């Protein structure tokens, strides 16, 4: 749902803008707020922080002794704040979802005299199964998880509409592909 490395780095920067923090606390806050079902690996958090440090977007504010290695306390720099400002102000490009791959499968099925309708039906069943999972997760989730699930569900609903429209136009598409 939420996994691009760029987004992780921006999320960590945004969390640091609230106040300096240790990697462990950043990971916990990120997992709680943005990816409760898919926690970040500690290695990803620390490699991202190292990259942000190298790029001058964060600084190490101090070290604290712990049971293991010293714990670094990271803080966002002015450049990091500018980076977050720019990122927040830049609209996300709408993503092309399943349709590109699925459209390709439908066309190839038609060209090879396979059942495109069966492909669409199987995909519809998979979408409905996934929607049931998100609805279950939404029922037991907190507000953040509910909103994340709503986002996924709305996209799946749009995909289902596309599946229905495509199924209703298979004869027309068959004629076009056959030429």
From TrEMBL:
Membrane-spanning parts: none
Stored SUPFAM superfamilies: Winged helix' DNA-binding domain (SSF46785)
InterPro entries, sorted: Tscrpt_reg_PadR_N, WH-like_DNA-bd_sf, WH_DNA-bd_sf
Transcription regulator PadR N-terminal domain: residues covered: 12-80
Protein name: Transcriptional regulator PadR-like family protein
């Amino acid at each position: 749902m939420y996994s691009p490395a760029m987004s992780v780095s921006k999320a960590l920067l945004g969390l640091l803008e609230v106040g300096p923090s240790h990697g462990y606390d950043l990971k916990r806050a990120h997992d709680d707020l943005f990816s409760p079902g898919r926690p970040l690996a500690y290695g990803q958090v620390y490699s991202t922080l190292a990259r942000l440090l190298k790029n001058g977007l964060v600084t190490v504010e101090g070290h604290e002794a712990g049971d293991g290695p010293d714990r670094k306390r990271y803080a966002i720099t002015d450049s990091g704040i500018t980076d977050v400002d720019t990122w927040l102000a830049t609209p996300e490009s709408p993503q092309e979802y399943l349709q590109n791959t699925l459209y390709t499968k439908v066309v190839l099925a038609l060209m090879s005299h396979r059942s495109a309708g069966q492909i669409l039906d199987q995909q519809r069943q998979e979408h409905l199964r996934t929607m049931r999972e998100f609805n279950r997760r939404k029922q037991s989730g907190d507000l953040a998880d509910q909103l994340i699930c709503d986002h996924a569900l709305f996209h799946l609903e749009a995909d289902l509409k596309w599946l229905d429209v495509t199924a209703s136009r298979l004869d027309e598409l068959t004629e076009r592909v056959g030429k």
